[in-house]
Design a protein that fits this description.
Blueprint lengths: L11 H11 L3 H18 L12 H31 L6 H27 L1
Helix pairs in contact: 1-3, 2-3, 3-4
């Protein structure tokens, strides 16, 4: 019996397209991040409406996995974008920047929001 091996050879533009497509992952990851965060907080026995306020350790326990879930598409975009750049397609830099800005803005907004709640 003969085995047939097909090795897919992807060029720089192919990785650039994959980097752009990976940005679509932000749509489900946004919803999943909220489900994960709220689910963990509920599993710990705290209300998700904020009354009474959950302790800091419970909020961190719920927030860290939720933020990781949201940032996953940025990791894929960075992986594919950097591969495209390495193969000579500098257009791969743009989806990496877009993904980094989206993920950074989400992290910053949640950090500022959490800080405002804890200081109030």
């Amino acid at each position: 019996m003969t085995a047939i091996h097909s090795h897919e050879r992807v060029s720089g533009p192919g990785f650039t397209r994959r980097a752009w497509w990976s940005l679509l992952g932000f749509v489900p990851s946004f919803v999943l991040a909220f489900l994960v965060g709220e689910g963990i907080l509920s599993a710990l026995g705290y209300s998700t409406d904020g009354y009474p306020q959950a302790p800091w350790w419970a909020v961190l326990t719920a927030a860290i996995p939720a933020l990781v879930v949201f940032v996953l598409p940025a990791g894929f975009a960075a992986y594919f974008g950097r591969r495209a750049i390495r193969l000579g397609d500098d257009r791969g830099r743009t989806p990496v920047i877009v993904a980094s800005v989206l993920a950074g803005a989400f992290l910053l907004q949640n950090g500022v929001s959490a800080l405002a709640v804890w200081l109030a």
